[in-house]
Design goal:
Elements (H helix, E strand, L loop, with lengths): L12 H17 L5 H7 L5 H13 L3 E2 L9 E2 L2 H7 L19 H6 L4 E4 L15 E5 L9 E4 L7 E4 L9 E9 L9
Antiparallel strand pairs: 1-2, 3-4, 4-7, 5-6, 5-7
Helix pairs in contact: 1-3, 2-3
Length: 188
């Protein structure tokens, strides 16, 4: 369990990267990634190095595992783990810095996805604005509560909250993400 003292143990960049990957993987698939998958995701070729980082995360109380079962990693108290992750701050200014993100995993997952540009403001209550591009994954089954894009014959595509009980018809796919481009300050 997590220690209850006032000082939260901090994570290294690599530990935070591994913890974020494990959490996302479990959230998406319902089971933990293998050691090899973790290593591939964070560009570590040595399984012993991955094990070492996992053991540190266990010692710090952020994950647990059952050594007698494969893929038995479990993230413990995600909110406290987020608080322990390193922050990118400039020592001189105290300002947050922009981090470079690796979008290759996202792009590979989105390879078969469809993108629809939203032109109306009818989805503002779902945090989708006119001009946003909605990424739709036609290969992933929707679960109750997921946002889905539907299209009936000769009608505009629409976004709905999926419910198996209501039998939403004309489902094109599950909404996997939204891309928003902000107006350039010089064009305003």
């Amino acid at each position: 369990m997590l220690q209850r003292d006032s000082k939260i143990q901090s994570l290294t960049e690599r530990q935070a990267e591994i913890l974020r990957y494990v959490h996302a993987y479990i959230s998406e698939r319902g089971f933990a990634p293998s050691i090899r998958e973790i290593g591939d995701a964070v560009q570590l070729s040595s399984s012993s190095t991955v094990h070492s980082h996992l053991n540190s995360l266990i010692e710090k109380g952020f994950i647990r595992r059952n050594p007698s079962k494969p893929r038995s990693l479990e993230v413990i108290n995600w909110e406290q783990a987020l608080a322990a992750m390193p922050r990118h701050r400039s020592a001189a200014s105290g300002q947050s810095q922009v981090s470079q993100l690796d979008l290759s995993n996202f792009i590979n997952k989105a390879a078969n996805s469809l993108i629809y540009r939203i032109s109306s403001d009818r989805y503002v209550d779902q945090a989708i604005m006119p001009g946003d591009m909605v990424i739709v994954d036609p290969s992933q089954a929707a679960a109750d509560g997921d946002m889905v894009l539907t299209q009936e014959a000769k009608r505009e595509p629409e976004i709905h909250t999926y419910s198996a009980a209501q039998q939403v018809s004309g489902v094109v796919g599950r909404v996997a993400g939204v891309i928003r481009t902000l107006p350039h300050p010089l064009n305003s």
